[in-house]
Design brief:
The complex is a heterodimer. By secondary structure, chain A is mainly alpha-helical. Chain A contains 40 helices and four strands. Chain B has one domain: Helix Hairpins (Orthogonal Bundle). The chains are: A mainly alpha, B mainly alpha.
């Protein structure tokens, strides 16, 4: 529990700090400091166990199917990192209180800083690799926010975007790598992975997941060629640079290498990839650092170099190198964070970080001068400082590697210690430059302010770090020994040798290399100006512009593709959709297994069938050929609908025939109403080419569906229909199986369907809002002969008859063709005929029916029928029926399904009358009158 | 002789082909016609999944024999009603878009 709390605590404090910090700086700082203090209070009591070598794992299952657990692990390595994150985090919180300007949103800053702290703790304490990747990406996001903290500065925004692009992209590679690795290992939990030792080296996918994991690590730790985001991230406020971009987040990459060291290291691929990348980064970055005039730029490139050093050590693959790597992680974090803070103080006091404009600050800022000098000595590797010891051990190990497993003492292998010495030499040179150019010499006159030492809240954190550097440097075995040994053991899986950290290693090759660095470094410093001129063009290279250009090009490409694919032409979308459906159908056709057809000519088509088919084909042909004449097309599409209704009746589906014919009447009327508004003709505007393409698509679709229908019909049938036929009467109490399925077996579907119907009618209602009640204009005749006398006089008496028939059809529906749907449709037709024959106003005056209410009540009835069984503790929509025998009428059946069907009946009438009435009234709307007026 | 299945399939194919062709036109009204044709085709197709049977019953009163598969019929019955709702809604959209844009092009502008 306590491990989870360490990670959780910073996140819990994010909101309070945000709220409080933007009002009171003191309160915000105090709350923010609570996170690292609380974390340390939780962590320190566990330290004794960690130093003794115990490994603590606590966790909860999160998404077990993905193998994702929220589990935490405390061993030497994670404890070392957690200490760094919490300790330096505390110092940075204190330092930032003095650093941030008066008007800056302190609360937001600390909120972001704490969310980073929590994420970073999550990375180092995660037992589950997948969970670690989640935290890993969180650190990328909080780093993005912090780099871009000064949102008004363009360079800050660009730097933030660049960092997110590189580290976020690397995080995706890492995710892929971790997934492959966990699959190979059978678990994402470190305990299980470590239990397999180095067995994964022989896995066939080892090169793949190794490279993916390395991509994640190298991008995060800014290794060549992904290094350029880090110098560009120096636009962040300096506390952020000290914390994220030197001490902790950029160490996540090397942390990962150390974490997976027992599993992934030991192969030649690992050695050459990791050592090569690290070495290249170390030497090149150290060389470039010397020429950076911006103090933070110099420190950033120096950070790259030291990350390269650590990577190189981890690449060596020897247990001792693993231990030294951990030791140097600790040392670098201490001295580099202190130097960044010193650089921030100089910037804060003088208003510039440009080494060319600075000088002689030792007089005005003595405390800062001393602290920065001591920090530089640690960075340069001067004896009695921590940097000296780990660097000396690194030199020593590089010599040993020459005869190691992958180099085998080859002559060219001596390039390794040579390059290592060169890196050390450059490191001395830029450390010297940092002190000499900024603090020594004569003060420059250009400064606008009079610099002086900052308040103690700013220099005290620096002093604390310098104290650590010196303490480790003087008494390494006492101060850092146990922790480094525990961490080294955790990295190497207990293989790290017992090492006594000490100042004096005797006369070794490393001593010579150190001497060389200390002689050559100052010489190189003296020569930096001419050297800079000689390679000015090279030093000005920055991959940022290239990446920005690449991103712009990518966006432009995406835009162009969008403009091409989404050009606003619905015709193109339809054509594309139909084309893809055809392709999908063809693919399914070609890959489906063969089922033998039964006798394909079981029954020849009879004459009535041939006549029906002929009429249907003819009418369809007319609709398509003459579709530009819209009235004609409507007339012929009604013929198609009629044939379809007849076909339903012919093929033993009387319910469908009744439904189709009623729907047909209403649909055709709606189309005619629409044509009152829409133009009567369609212009001929498609090019022959497009018509050809459309015809091809149409023939493909028609042919495909016809072949599919034929293919199914001539093959044996398997159906669940038998169950419904058998159970309809005993379970549903009705003999019309189609109706019983609708209102009983599949009543839930029907309920959804009538809801959709009602919703569609409400959609019509809303779309045609503003059509208003039927006003006097409705009475303005379109023609003299408005309502034909014959029609009027015939339909009025018929209304009651037809409605009676609807009731009859409704009542018998459970047993014979009919039911709510059909009865509703018949009633609708009856009402609409009144509209046509006598006019809306006349009909509504006499009808006095609110169709909206009717539709809503219909759905309500259906739903209540479903809910009623709950009163009897039965499932939703359970149906029941019984028989009543009132006098005179005789025995008849009462089924709850009939009530449900009543709901269907009312919904159908309500919805269809809403649509019909709304569209009919729209003819008289002001909106339409305005359009027509405009046209005239 | 041509089997009834072949004739039936041919009719469905013709409806789909005509419907798809009209669906790809530039004006709203032909698209509504096309949707209607496709609806007919789909309903006929679904009914044919219960196989083509003449003179059989979908109800089980005493004395009826040789039943037809009722499941596709139940599906199609609601499909017809829902299809109507869709058609009515598309018609309304067509009317409204004509009123709003002043033309009945499917893209809302004539130049496309």
């Amino acid at each position: 529990m306590s491990l989870a709390l360490i990670v959780l605590l910073p996140f819990l404090l994010v909101l309070p700090v945000w709220a409080a910090g933007n009002r009171s700086r003191v309160l915000g700082t105090a709350l923010a400091a609570l996170a690292p203090i609380g974390g340390l209070a939780l962590l320190l009591p566990q330290l004794a166990g960690v130093l003794a070598g115990t490994v603590q794992v606590q966790g909860w299952s999160w998404i077990p199917r993905l193998g994702l657990d929220l589990a935490f692990r405390l061993d030497g390595l994670s404890a070392l990192f957690a200490l760094l994150i919490l300790g330096i985090g505390l110092l940075v919180v204190i330092y930032a209180a003095g650093y941030l300007g008066k008007d800056e949103p302190v609360g937001s800053f600390y909120a972001m800083l704490l969310s980073f702290m929590g994420a970073m703790l999550g990375v180092v304490l995660s037992e589950n690799l997948l969970a670690m990747v989640v935290f890993w990406e969180l650190t990328s996001i909080s780093s993005f926010l912090l780099i871009g903290f000064w949102t008004q500065v363009p360079a800050a925004r660009q730097g933030a975007r660049l960092a997110l692009t590189i580290t976020g992209g690397g995080g995706l590679a890492l995710l892929a790598g971790v997934i492959l690795l966990s699959q190979a290992a059978g678990s994402a939990n470190l305990t299980d992975i470590f239990a397999q030792g180095s067995a994964l080296l022989d896995h066939p996918q080892y090169p793949l997941f190794l490279v993916l994991v390395l991509l994640g690590a190298f991008t995060k730790s800014a290794q060549f060629p992904f290094h350029f985001w880090l110098p560009n991230a120096m636009t962040a406020p300096t506390p952020v640079s000290a914390y994220l971009h030197s001490a902790t987040m950029v160490k996540a990459g090397v942390f990962l290498l150390a974490r997976l060291w027992p599993t992934l290291s030991g192969s030649a691929l690992w050695f050459f990839l990791v050592t090569g990348t690290g070495l290249l980064t170390m030497v090149v970055a150290a060389w470039v650092a010397l020429y950076k005039h911006d103090l933070k730029g110099l420190l950033a490139w120096s950070t790259l170099s030291h990350l390269g050093l650590i990577t190189t050590l981890l690449g060596f693959g020897s247990p001792l190198a693993g231990l030294i790597a951990v030791f140097h992680i600790l040392n670098h974090a201490a001295f580099k964070a202190s130097l960044f803070m010193s650089a921030g103080i100089v910037d804060h006091e003088t208003g510039t970080r440009d080494a060319r404009k600075l000088g002689g600050l030792y007089r005005s800022m003595p405390i800062t001068f001393v602290l920065a000098t001591l920090g530089s000595m640690a960075m340069g590797g001067v004896p009695l400082f921590n940097g000296f010891i780990s660097k000396e051990m690194f030199f020593e190990e590089s010599v040993h590697r020459v005869a190691g497993p992958f180099l085998d003492g080859a002559a060219w292998a001596w390039a390794l210690p040579a390059l290592v010495t060169l890196g050390g030499l450059c490191s001395v040179a830029y450390s010297v430059r940092l002190v000499v150019d900024v603090f020594l010499g004569a003060p420059k006159a250009e400064l606008s302010r009079h610099p002086h030492d900052p308040p103690a809240t700013m220099w005290a954190p620096v002093a604390a770090l310098i104290l650590v550097c010196a303490a480790v440097g003087v008494a390494p075995a006492f101060v850092a020994g146990p922790l480094v040994a525990a961490a080294g053991a955790a990295v190497t899986g207990g293989l790290a040798p017992e090492v006594h950290l000490s100042l004096w290693h005797g006369i070794t090759p490393a001593l010579g290399m150190t001497a060389l660095a200390f002689v050559g470094g100052p010489l190189l410093f003296l020569a930096w100006r001419p050297l800079e001129r000689a390679q000015a063009g090279l030093l000005a290279l920055d991959a940022k512009a290239g990446v920005e250009r690449a991103i712009d090009a990518l966006v432009e490409l995406a835009d162009r593709h969008t403009r091409w694919a989404d050009n606003g032409s619905v015709q193109r979308y339809f054509a594309t959709a139909v084309g893809f459906i055809l392709l999908a159908g063809a693919a399914a056709w070609l890959t489906s297994p063969e089922v033998a057809p039964v006798d394909p000519i079981a029954r020849a088509a009879s004459v009535p069938e041939l006549v029906l088919a002929f009429v249907l084909l003819l009418a369809t042909g007319v609709v398509v050929r003459f579709h530009r004449n819209r009235i004609l097309a409507v007339v012929f599409i009604s013929v198609v609908g009629l044939v379809v209704s007849l076909a339903f009746v012919w093929f033993s589906a009387p319910d469908l025939g009744l439904t189709q014919i009623s729907v047909e009447v209403v649909t055709i009327l709606l189309m005619l109403l629409a044509l009152y508004v829409l133009p009567a003709g369609t212009p001929s505007e498609s090019s022959p080419l497009r018509r050809g393409r459309d015809a091809l698509l149409a023939l493909g679709a028609g042919g495909g569906v016809a072949a599919m229908a034929y293919g199914v019909m001539v093959r044996p049938q398997e159906t669940i229909g038998g169950y419904y036929l058998e159970s309809s009467k005993p379970l549903g109490g009705g003999t019309n199986v189609v109706n019983v399925i609708l209102v009983d077996f599949r009543g839930f579907d029907t309920m959804g369907e009538i809801s959709v119907l009602l919703m569609a009618s409400l959609g019509v209602l809303v779309l045609l809002a503003g059509s208003g009640p039927v006003g006097p204009r409705a009475l303005t005749p379109l023609s003299e002969d408005r309502f034909p006398a014959m029609l009027t006089s015939v339909t009025r008496p018929m209304l009651s008859l037809v409605l009676l028939m609807a009731v009859y059809i409704f009542l018998r529906g459970h047993n014979l063709p009919g039911g709510g749907f059909i009865a509703g449709l018949i009633a609708v037709v009856a009402l609409i005929i009144q509209y046509v024959a006598s006019g809306i106003a006349w009909t509504e005056q006499r009808l006095q029916l609110d169709f909206r209410r009717m539709g809503a009540i219909g759905v309500l009835i259906a739903v209540s029928t479903g809910l009623a069984p709950w009163l009897f503790r039965l499932p939703f929509l359970t149906s029941g029926y019984t028989y009543l025998s009132p006098p005179l009428i005789g025995k008849f059946e009462v089924a709850s399904a009939a009530v449900f069907d009543l709901g269907v009946f009312l919904t159908v009438i309500g919805s269809m009358m809403i649509m019909m009435g709304r569209l009919a009234r729209y003819q008289n709307s002001d909106e339409l009158a305005a359009v027509h007026g405009r046209r005239r | 002789m041509i089997s009834i299945e072949a004739i039936y399939a041919l009719a469905i194919g013709a409806l789909v082909a005509g419907g798809v062709y009209l669906l790809l036109r530039a004006r709203t009204f032909p698209i509504i016609l096309g949707l209607s044709l496709i609806s007919y085709a789909v309903n006929l197709y679904l009914v044919s999944m219960g196989r083509l049977a003449v003179g059989r019953a979908a109800f089980t009163l005493p004395g009826t024999e040789g039943h037809v598969d009722p499941v596709p019929q139940a599906l199609v019955l609601t499909a017809i009603v829902i299809g109507f709702a869709m058609t009515a809604f598309s018609i309304t959209l067509a009317v409204k878009s004509f009123v709003v844009f002043g033309n009945d092009h499917i893209d809302g502008r004539e130049d496309a």
